[in-house]
TrEMBL record:
Protein name as annotated: Trypsin-like
Tagged with keyword Disulfide bond: yes
Subcellular location: Secreted, Extracellular space
UniProt source species: Drosophila suzukii (Spotted-wing drosophila fruit fly)
SUPFAM superfamilies with a match to the protein in the record: Trypsin-like serine proteases
Gene: LOC108021415
Domain Peptidase S1: 31-256
Signal peptide interval: 1-20
Protein's UniProt keywords contain Amino-acid biosynthesis: no
Gene Ontology MF: a single term: serine-type endopeptidase activity
Swiss-Prot/TrEMBL GO biological process terms: proteolysis
Keywords tagged on the record: Disulfide bond, Hydrolase, Protease, Secreted, Serine protease, Signal, Zymogen
Length: 258
């Protein structure tokens, strides 16, 4: 299961069909033990919404008309059903709201294995970059394990049944190379953690419900996209992200042609 926000009723209905790995739960996505964030500090952060204004995923602005998010966020929608709010720490007001012209998720995305969990969205009109709306650069090489990173989003503050904050939250975590994340030090194992993933861990800190598709940033560059995990901030189960460096070529090629 991925990290989208669903109602408890929907979660129960889906529980029988969305167990992608044996004994691995894929919960939907939220910031755990985070702090309030100002949009000026994270001007690349966007809220992906239905046209009725319902936030369901995060994303990042990577140029004036392109949003990077998670593939699992986009599976149930058409482009004309979506909008993006940029330039506001509130997911419900302020900033700019722009429609979506088109989107595409990675052809190799697999909802059971959660590999290649990235998608590109094209805005209906380009945005003017300001102090509150600014594209982020994508990382080309994988940072070493232990590198501090920050993840942002509007997800709920606890696992499953919690209200979602209206204002943006941030949390600092430490990166884990996929080989370290797949090692015996943690509980996922090599069958679950693949080359197109990167992990991040912190003491009772994580991204979870509502943060799916949001950016993981280290040294001012985006290194990951919030994807999946076992619980949220659970001991020995780091958060798992789509690895931007290994997927960068696809992201750039798709952005240029979509």
């Amino acid at each position: 299961m991925n990290r989208l926000v669903l109602s408890v009723v929907a979660l129960v209905a889906l529980s029988a069909c969305c167990q992608g790995h044996p004994d691995i739960d894929f919960p939907f996505g939220r910031i755990v033990n985070g702090e309030d964030a100002e949009i000026e500090s994270f001007p690349y952060q966007v809220s992906i919404q239905t046209t009725k204004g319902s936030h369901f995923c995060g994303g990042s602005l990577i140029d004036s008309e392109t949003i990077l998010t998670a593939a699992h966020c986009m599976q149930s929608y058409a482009a004309n059903e979506l909008q993006v709010r940029l330039g506001s720490k509130s997911r419900s007001s302020g900033g700019e709201v722009v429609g979506v012209r088109a989107f595409k998720f990675h052809e190799g995305y697999n909802s059971k294995l959660m590999v290649n969990d990235v998608a590109i969205m094209k805005l209906s009109t380009p945005v003017r970059q300001t102090s509150k709306i600014r594209a982020i650069e994508l990382e080309s090489s994988q940072p070493v394990s232990g590198t501090p990173a920050v993840v942002t989003g509007w997800g709920t503050k606890c696992f499953l049944v919690c209200s979602s904050p209206d204002n943006l939250l941030q949390v600092t975590v430490d990166l884990l190379h996929y080989t370290d994340c797949a090692s015996d030090t943690f509980s996922y194992g090599a069958e679950s953690i693949r080359e197109t993933m990167v992990c991040a861990t912190g003491e009772k800190k994580d991204a979870c419900q509502g943060d799916s598709g949001g950016p993981l940033v280290a040294n001012g560059k985006q290194v990951g996209v919030v994807s999946w995990g076992q619980g949220c901030a659970w001991s020995n189960y780091p958060g798992v992200y789509a690895d931007v460096p290994s997927l960068k070529q696809w992201i750039e090629d798709t952005s240029a042609t979509l």
